[in-house]
Amino acid sequence: MKYVIMADGKGTRWNNFNEIPKHFIEIDGERIIDRCVRLLKENDSGCEIIITSHDPRYDIPGTTRYEPLNNILEIDRFTSELICDNICFMYGDTYYSENAIKTVTETPAEDILFFGNSRSIIAVKVSDGGLFRMHVDRVRKLYLEGKLKTCKGWQVYQSFTGLAPDTIGDNFVFIEDSSRDFNSPEDLINPHQ
Fold first, then answer.
1. How is residue 10 annotated by DSSP?
2. Which end of the chain has the smaller Cβ count within 10 Å, N or C?
3. Is the model's pLDDT at 10 over the cut of 60?
């Protein structure tokens, strides 16, 4: 399986808090992006890991850093030119539990499978790249036409499932554990919100 760790966001809500990118937050002495790489390799020994970033600090041993061609909107983090069959998109600003990585690596996706909790999507596993690209492109187009207020993973999920906002149904694997994302300094300061 090919894993893309998305780490090329603008970090505007994080605003270089503590002088580090949010992907470099350390928990128990390990940066969260390094933890993701390590756990992926432990659970899928033959995997290929790509980190999307224009920043050379993201050259992490055992991975390939890729500079996306387009990074204007939040939806662009899915790096259109990398979308293919049998790929999984992970978030570089997420602390993944061992259970979460095990669940993501071991759960097969029939077409597109989303993982997360009621607050965040933490991974998107894609077996049908064409189908996923179609929904990513659709969400981007609707956002640019002013028909959507935001364009990120949740809108791709809604486009794919046909469900209304704030509704979670099939093609979503709940992972209710210590896995969580960091978007702003408050997420680090008040981790249980």
1. -
2. C
3. no
Q: Could you give the CA distance from residue 143 to residue 152 in angstroms, rounded to a whole number?
A: 10
Q: Please give the structure tokens belonging to residue 100.
A: 């979460």
Read off the amino acid at residue 11: G
- For 97, the token pair is 């539990």
Pairwise CA distance, residues 174 & 116, whole Å: 5
pLDDT digits (tens, 9 = 90+) for 66-94: 999 988 898 999 999 999 999 999 998 89
* Element containing residue 117 per DSSP (H, E): none
Q: Please determine, for residue 21, whether its predicted confidence score (pLDDT) is greater than 60.
A: yes
The more confident residue out of 103 and 164 is 103
Q: What distance in Å separates the CA atoms of residue 23 and residue 37, rounded to the nearest whole number?
A: 12
